[in-house]
Design brief:
mainly beta; globular; disordered N terminus
Length: 254
């Protein structure tokens, strides 16, 4: 919690007080203007801090002491960002837009677009609610079910339209955990998921936001309140994070 607050304050100071270097795009210059309102999300990585506010993405480079404001003029494919999600293993940021478009911001700054969900015509909402990663694959919970994106090839690998809103999703080596109908459900990774019945109800009968907390230090744990759930299935993480306010898969019965 303390680390999260310090990072947010540091980023705000950098963007609001220190003049950032402008990026020349043709005859236009881009300057990071930070409003400070509706601070939606903060992602701390090895080299950068990504920050989402008012639907706009910013970053602070720790090494170069530079800030950046992301727009269509410097590579982004859309506007009005709804969420940002970082793959710590593969080191890229997945950017979800309110219109269901998806960008992948690579470590070298390249931006790849995955427009499949935005482009497809559905009779139900296509809103993106949650994202988790397994290797190069992004498991994306949506208002119609979930889909799997191959972030290396930038294509949708699988899509499952259940007509059911998946509020959050977490994938481990063995299982996929998802929340819908105000309960937590689980299915084996290797199982066919063409039918919603492939997900079995667990003993956790309350609505939670599922989170994977492998990389969070112990002093950060008070940040996670009772309405959030942690899912991980390694012995080390079970022992480390099996405490009040979170649950491990050892606590889930199905």
């Amino acid at each position: 919690m303390i680390k999260r607050i310090c990072l947010a304050v540091a980023l705000l100071i950098v963007m609001a007080v220190v003049p950032a270097k402008s990026q020349q795009v043709g005859s236009w210059s881009i300057y990071p203007v930070f409003s400070g309102n509706n601070n939606n999300s903060l992602v701390d990585t090895d080299n950068k801090v990504f920050y989402l506010a008012d639907g706009w993405l910013y970053s602070y480079d720790k090494k170069n002491d530079e800030s950046m404001f992301y727009t269509k003029m410097n590579g982004m494919s859309d506007t009005d960002i709804s969420g940002i999600y970082y793959n710590y293993d593969k080191k890229f940021l997945l950017v979800a837009y309110s219109n269901s478009n998806i960008d992948i911001v690579r470590e070298n700054g390249r931006v790849d677009n995955v427009p499949d969900l935005k482009s497809v015509i559905l009779t139900v909402s296509k809103a993106i609610n949650s994202v988790d990663f397994s290797g190069d694959y992004a498991y994306i919970a949506t208002d119609f079910g979930y889909m799997v994106v191959d972030c290396k090839k930038c294509v949708v690998k699988e899509s499952f339209n259940y007509g059911k809103a998946f509020k959050s999703i977490v994938v481990t080596d063995k299982n996929i955990f998802a929340t819908f109908d105000k309960k937590i459900y689980v299915s084996s990774v290797g199982e066919s998921h063409y039918e919603l019945s492939s997900f079995k109800e667990t003993n956790i009968k309350q609505e939670m936001e599922l989170l994977k907390i492998r990389r969070v230090e112990m002093h950060m744990m008070p940040y996670y309140s009772d309405w959030r759930g942690m899912v991980e299935d390694t012995d080390e993480d079970r022992e480390k994070y099996g405490r009040a306010g979170v649950f491990c898969v050892r606590d889930v019965r199905y």
